[in-house]
Specification:
Elements lengths: L4 H16 L5 H9 L20 E4 L2 E3 L2 H11 L6 E5 L5 H8 L3 E6 L2 H14 L3 E6 L12 E6 L8 H6 E11 L4 E10 L2 E10 L10
Parallel strand pairs: 3-4, 3-6, 4-5, 6-7
Antiparallel strand pairs: 1-2, 7-8, 8-9
Length: 213
């Protein structure tokens, strides 16, 4: 696949649109402006890759719309060398954005075909330090805990206790919680068993499912 001047121009327009919608974290905007989103989509969607829309990626999953990716990433406030756990690799696009922010990214996907495809794409693009795992996201990656940041990219009925346990004190989890419509929660771990939550608005995500697909 090629990243043409046309694609780059479409990304610049996307970044402008995201800024107009209220995304002001320039590091996040720079990462989205640098990353070829069309690489992570089926060729049938290439013409629309830089519209602010989700698209199907197989296994009844979607790649989140760019605004959602930017919004969640900005809420995380990722800094270089932070250990970040992402639950729901999907296409690998969000993991690549985090890697471009110079995080050490650990990403978990329950669907093996998506895991394999995303890992191959990330290996080819080399956006930074990303490790991919085919695991149950509800269980996280306890062997690599604690994490400075945890990002969940599917709608959960609650913040999974295992993930809260794996969050470092002072760390931040961003997770959409709810049934049909989710509320984006920003959870700060202020003590070993003490958390502070903020509601950051309504979104729609595919369901967060336990187990391995």
């Amino acid at each position: 696949m090629q990243d043409t001047y046309r694609h780059q121009g479409m990304r610049r327009k996307l970044v402008t649109a995201l800024r107009e919608r209220g995304i002001h974290d320039e590091r996040v905007l720079e990462a989205i402006g640098a990353l070829p989103r069309h690489f992570f989509l089926d060729a049938a969607f290439e013409e629309w890759a830089y519209e602010d829309k989700p698209f199907p990626i197989g296994c009844e999953q979607t790649i989140s719309q760019p605004y959602t990716v930017a919004f969640q990433t900005a809420l995380l406030d990722v800094r270089p060398r932070m250990k970040v756990l992402e639950i729901g690799t999907g296409s690998g696009y969000q993991a690549a954005v985090l890697a471009l922010l110079k995080a050490r990214v650990f990403t978990v996907e329950r669907h093996k075909p998506l895991h394999q495809r995303a890992r191959a794409m990330l290996d080819a693009l080399k956006p930074g330090n990303v490790r991919c795992y085919h695991r149950d996201g509800y269980l996280g990656l306890p062997e690599f805990a604690p994490f400075d940041r945890i990002l969940v990219t599917a709608g959960a009925t609650e913040a999974p206790p295992a993930l809260l346990q794996q969050l470092a004190v002072g760390g931040v989890m961003v997770i959409p919680v709810g049934e049909d419509v989710q509320h984006m929660r920003r959870i700060v771990k202020v003590g070993e068993a003490d958390f502070r939550e903020e509601d950051k608005g309504q979104f729609r995500f595919v369901p967060f499912v336990k187990g391995i697909g």
